[in-house]
Design brief:
Elements (H helix, E strand, L loop, with lengths): L2 H9 L2 E5 H19 L5 E6 L2 H9 L7 E8 L11 E4 L9 E9 L3 H12 L4 E10 L13 E6 L4 E2 L14 E4 L4
Parallel strand pairs: 2-3, 2-5, 5-6, 6-7
Antiparallel strand pairs: 1-9, 3-4, 8-9
Helix pairs in contact: 2-3
């Protein structure tokens, strides 16, 4: 895609949550997470690449001892539809016996998040909690009843970009949550 085409995508998109809305949601989540985990010194693992911006905004608001790590697992790559989960990087810190908080950009169908939770449990995590910036509301969840423990913003079932969410690798940096038209 050309730069003009990419710019037009965002220019014509519907703003679902402004940057201020997202910041307010992250601040609320930080309070909820602090209330739940401040006495546990958790290992916070960011799911890359989508979770990067969310994690950067959230972590400085969690004023208690924690460790950080990351993993890179994706079903999308530069595609707009998910395929098999591709583990690019697994966490380096030993998970055994730890409370783990996973940070990701979105809970859509839940395949990636469920797989990462299963990985943590299999590798001996004492407890695994999940935090997502965005949850899509629809009936296509991979597993009935799948929910994140902490959710920033719930949105309708549309293709979204911004705050870590991307379209073929682009617009993770958009300063809000935007629904693209025709995607």
């Amino acid at each position: 895609m050309t730069v003009d085409q990419l710019n037009r995508l965002l220019r014509e998109a519907d703003l679902l949550a402004s940057g201020n809305d997202v910041e307010t949601a992250i601040a609320r989540m930080a309070g909820e997470i602090t209330g739940r985990l401040s006495d546990s010194s958790p290992l916070v693992i960011t799911v890359m690449n989508g979770g990067l911006i969310f994690a950067g905004q959230l972590l400085t608001r969690l004023f208690f001892p924690l460790e950080t790590d990351y993993l890179h697992a994706t079903r999308y790559g530069d595609r707009t539809r998910g395929e098999e989960l591709d583990w690019i990087v697994k966490p380096k810190i030993d998970i055994r016996g730890k409370t783990v908080l996973l940070l990701d950009d979105i809970l859509d169908e839940g395949v990636t998040l469920s797989s990462v939770v299963a990985y943590c449990i299999k590798n001996g995590a004492k407890e695994v909690l999940t935090a997502v910036l965005v949850e899509k509301l629809h009936g296509r969840k991979a597993f009935p009843g799948i929910k994140a423990d902490f959710v920033g913003i719930e949105i309708e079932d549309r293709f979204v970009v911004g705050y870590g969410l991307d379209y073929k690798g682009f617009w993770r940096n958009a300063p809000g949550i935007y629904a693209l038209k025709g995607v």
